[in-house]
Amino acid sequence: MSATEQDESTPRAVSAVPMSDLLAACAAAHAISTPPRLPDPGTVPAERHREAA
Asked: What mean pLDDT is predicted for residues 23-50?
């Protein structure tokens, strides 16, 4: 088997998507699938209930 025959039968990796697009897609998926953080108890003022008149 010659070198050219071996090269034709060997599968070649073809990248159709740039790495930057893959990283952006992963970041977007992570942002969408992660629930929002709960606020720290000390930073949110307590609710005030108004008294009935």
From this structure: 83
